[in-house]
Amino acid sequence: xxxxxxxxxxxxxxxxxxxxxxxxxxxxxxxxxxxxxxxxxxxxxxxxxxxxxxxxxxxxxxxxxxxxxxxxxxxxxxxxxxxxxxxxxxxxxxxxxxxxxxxxxxxxxxxxxxxxxxxxxxxxxxxxxxxxxxxxxxxxxxxxxxxxxxxxxxxxxxxxxxxxxxxxxxxxxxxxxxxxxxxxxxxxxxxxxxxxxxxxxxxxxxxxxxxxxxxxxxxxxxxxxxxxxxxxxxxxxxxxxxxxxxxxxxxxxxxxxxxxxxxxxxxxxxxxxxxxxxxxx
Length: 281
Known about the structure:
Keywords: Signal
Low-confidence stretches: 1-26
Radius of gyration: 17 Å
Signal peptide: 1-31
Number of strands: 21
Order of helices and strands: EEEEEEEEEEEEEEEEEEEEE
Largest sheet: 10 strands, mixed
Strand content: over 45%
Number of helices: 0
Structural class: mainly beta
């Protein structure tokens, strides 16, 4: 088994620390095994914060992960989707006190441990109001999965983008503080990278744009025999006022991805949510 983790070390002009090496000549494409999806759901009550961890079956390692909040009515933010070697851990916080019951679900997308997977990360900096980070896959690999973490945010910072690029060479993560929050927080972007599959494609689906309090969108199915190996999400408009509530495969069949978001209170501008699916076969 070869699983590696590469750490970011260099700061660029915008204050973003980029990890890994920009994509170079790709290795020969190959067929990839059908991925396996697993999930685990936290207790369903009014406590905050909540976390849960989905683990890969024996002999499998993480290719990607996702999370979703059940209920919460715009009071609960999906704060972390953390990729580990064989686990995906998600965490959610109440932004403001909420007496209703809710839960959070972690999903792991797994492949055989013989896969040469690189989990790499980058930290972002900026202002206390907004931060971003871009992490690149090492040369000869492609992006299979994404994740993020918001240390120190404690539910007061909202992820606004977990965006794979069309070439599947990198992922950009952005987050915005809510309500003038000025605490000490950070941003970490995760990428799971491996040798290119024979067929890889990024699918996107975007909700309608408007003032509605809640929006959700699901991509079309991956073409042919392809399956969802990774997911992403992006909120356009309403930054710092719209909560990411779902970024996950739509089912453990791993054929589509979904994203969902909810306004926290009134949002002055129109907004939308986009779901990304990384399809590979």
